[in-house]
């Protein structure tokens, strides 16, 4: 907010000057030679005139919204498809390596573990070096940016490259990481870069309001081309990133997301991967009797349990980050060896999923995509057994174990994946948490569905027709409910319909998603809000819902009336007094005490820094000593960290490491405080040492 | 806008007084006996304490949002189901009557024509007498109300009753009318009444902002329980009624709409109409290969043609209203015989659809529901012929004619229904236009689909498998595209998926809907905006999309700087001067010329009326003569009509009849003008006559 304001102050003067100059210069400017071309004679003149007119027409069209949106959709579809291709190749390479070494278990283990470790370490290192801003999901940052805060380096080409390559490596490793959040970020960067590129041709891309609208559309494109789910993408991006949504922006999202999803799927058809355009995870549930009315309580149970599960996931994720941050010794060690933590986590997770080892009890050999395909399967595993006669025998086999049954495998899978996903998403690589949570939810739904199928082998319906229970439908419901609970969105329901290509389970899905949301929202913030808090991004929290008392709170009930302020013509002493008399972290700057026109705000620490750099050494020492005596040093240093995080530098990607510059400031202040606390004699002695 | 402002001014003083009184009365109020109950002794005391606590708990819960939303969903589901039941009974009665009289064509015709005429006439008369506000769709009015304008009598019990009964009769008549717009209105009235009812228990329902949020949720419920389409309902209501949408209101819509749709469908199951909860118009298209990539151009053609068709529909609808309004003689005659127009229109339409007559060429015997079921049918009519072996032979038979083929029937159906729907929706009964347009769109889609099937009998795909073209899929695409074009919404796509229970055609539907929107939005306003303009509701038009020049327009570029204003202490002469010097229809009212604090605005005609009632007859005549000389009478009378429509009375339901009060004012002014234009001698003579 204030970040933008100070920027606006700077540009305002320039704008005004430009306007005035424009008004003055109302006299017709001299015509360029190209404009006079129509009146010149010559053989090539008509051709050149025609070419010029075409050029002018194209340039005028470049400014249209739909050209921009089509270009954005096209680019993102290509990026998405290329990344999917690269990720699939990476995963195949691992499978091939693992399969080729089946003579020696140790070699197999080495291959299984080394491959993802190398990839994740490379991804972490590459991102760290090129653009630390590319780390993490990106949705929390987009949420902040769409509110109008300028986060530096978040929408640059460097970050784009870092995010695309880092994400491809991270997902190619087979860790339980998602690509949906990063895609939102990638699409936004794409839109920002595209608008900067197009502004070379026409001047219509410099309006800030329009850029924000385009970014909102880009978020929709990100989700849309990630899951080939245009409607769900638009809704999800609205729910996740906006508080107030301009409906006139709606069509932009739909247009771009549909185009992007279309191209994304057409590429698959052209590449002969598929025969025609269909859903990504197509299900084949029966249409005439999708579920019985009496199964609804089971769906409601899935919803409520998913709500608790989702809240637990958010809590666990935050606790892991906070634990790592609080352990000073671990923290300092890891800060030196930045790549150790990712490598360690990857090592642990890939060791546990090693198929001949513990992985055999949790279908460890399946990739995320295969897991989803099997979970949405039409068969009833518990009753009919894993069918041997079907062509997808290979991947369904993973859920069968000779010494345990399907239920145990599912429970182990859910429990292990739960903490693994929560841990893996704290690795400082570009990654999201949507897909892992989605898979866990599907597994939980499948578990409930299999239990129901075992309980009612011939279905609940007691009429003439026997309609067996479809556990795959439960998996769909569970996936939507858990991902909805973690992200606090209802539109996961729509995403699920578009992913599976079937909408027959609409009522169970909606009921489960709403119940999951109700439970999760009353327990924990959404995953994105949680990350915003952890990273201390400048963001006003939302009021939440269902609390009618909030409707009668007025601004005057909570506002502070006696605020100390800085005037334009105040003295050093006035400043000092203001700093002493208030503990506010931001001081308002007004024109004068009489007019009280607000010019902006200044950070307390900035004032402090300016004061200490401007005052003479003697007076500075004296002033600082007073300052130290009047306040404890801790708050000062704490706020200096926050300044660094909030201020010019922008938050660092790695959530639990304070950024390096901030650390130096921190130590610097600490030294000063210590220096001032000791007596002059002692200080001298220490300096001699 | 200004309507609310003047109201606010009135209530502001009361609010402030109440606040001050509250602050003064901070001394503890005397405890009521019930609060002291816990400390009294006696045998029944514990029971009574417990009962009181329960009561208090319930009362505190009544204030919660979700209680309200559940109640709203429940009531609306019951209303929707009961109305559907009544409408189905009405339609069956007509069919039964028509079927019973098959011995005599004349008697059959009489029965076929009289029945709808009586129903429509009753509906029109009943609505006119009880609450003229219930006439029409209701969405334009809700759009205006949600912007904050207070329209009187639009959310009352009387209007509710008139709308429910009027709509039931209107739809029961079998005319091409829709129920989706009225349902939005009914749900909003339901919410308003419910919140007034619940405020008897708790005091949380008096907040205006909250009421508006609840109304927005109610709009979603209206669409949701009309089509059993919760997601589409929420999106449609957002697109149609909002410009800026508060995302925190999102869950409310989803919650209430889902609950409502659930109850609505459960009622059908309990009533043994259906075996389990499924879609309303379930389709059974094949899942593995829904459409070929090479069919997409055909879908795009449907989209573009629907765009033109939708714009034409809106244009036609408006022209009919304007034509009826402009024909003074027809207008005056119809104003006296208000019920003649509805009866006449019904007579014409039902005569044309009479099955043994012209109706045999346009499947006239089918109800709207049957038409949709047949159009979404899985068979290919042109190639396979209307299948005889299927159980729904009865209704499919209507499309087959021995002396013509399916294409002719479809073309005749589309052309006839097009103007019939445009005409029927101008009848002053509660009715919408969504469903008729939806049906026409489906028929058009079917036509294209059948043509494609005839062109490519074995499908386009030339691989090993033969996938035939599914004309039903084209019908779905056409329905979504045309209704999207008429209403300028994208969410008809989602409604279509929920209505048919299949999402496999998502990409064709999205492409067609977006293309239809692009074409229609560049040609005409949406149907609702068109009605808003016809009814002259106070509503700021939207900027529209795709015009980047609008981004660089500043307020100062279009604002008027030298505005004449009225001060609190101005004299009659000042007022007169202001009226003479400006032609603005609204005059700003400021505190004083020095402070220039805006207090509100006043209509020019109101000032004129006040002036003429306050001034003495002599001076009034003089002043009016000056006024007439300086302005032409036409503008005055025109603005007086607008005042009546905009002002206290609210717009009348019947779109092309100026409201009666307005008419009297109109004539009054006309007389005055004429009186003033004639010389005193002539006037006296005329008065003697």
TrEMBL record, chains A, B:
It is a multi-pass membrane protein. Keywords: CBS domain, Chloride, Chloride channel, Ion channel, Ion transport, Membrane, Repeat, Transmembrane, Transmembrane helix, Transport. It is found in: Membrane. GO terms for cellular component: chloride channel complex; plasma membrane. GO terms for molecular function: voltage-gated chloride channel activity. The chain crosses the membrane at residues 66-88, 109-131, 183-202, 214-238, 250-270, 296-318, 339-358, 434-456, 476-499, 506-523. The keyword Membrane applies. This is Chloride voltage-gated channel 2. It comes from Cyanistes caeruleus. The gene is CLCN2.
